[in-house]
Amino acid sequence: MDVSFDSSQLNERQTEFNQFNVLAYQKSADGFDYQLSYFNRYSALHFLPDTIGDLVFNGVASDVYRQSVINGIQEDTSYRLGFSIP
Description:
Blueprint: E1 13-29, E2 32-48, H1 51-57, E3 64-79
Antiparallel strand pairs: 1-2, 2-3
């Protein structure tokens, strides 16, 4: 059986969504400088294969959905030593 499939006719779709948020607080007092930050990232990806075309070329046609959520906190502090010149 001779199966012919034109690869230019593949109809695959991929959608992506990404969102990133940051909340930060800064303060300087008595020689100390500090910043405290919270961050959040959400990502989603959905791949829809051309079922017949992918089976012909790859032997597999997976409908893939992936999402991830990442949260974190970062803190930076510094202290000035010595004298400041006005």
